Amino acid sequence: MLQIPAGQVIDAAQALKLAGRWALAGQLLAAASADTPAERAAVSMAKATVAVDADFWHRTASPGAQAAVAEATSFITEAAGADAELTVLRYDLEMLRLQRDYSTELFRPDGPESGPGGRDPAVLDELAARARHLRETAPGRRRAGSAAFWAGVIDDNLRGDAASARSLFTEAVAIGEETGDDLLTSYGLRHLGYANDQAGDAGLARQQWRRAVELRQRAGCVPLTLAQQLLVAEATVKDDPGTALPVAAEVRQWAAALGIAILETGAAALLEGAGR
Question: Cα separation of 171 and 131, whole Å?
Answer without folding.
Answer: 14
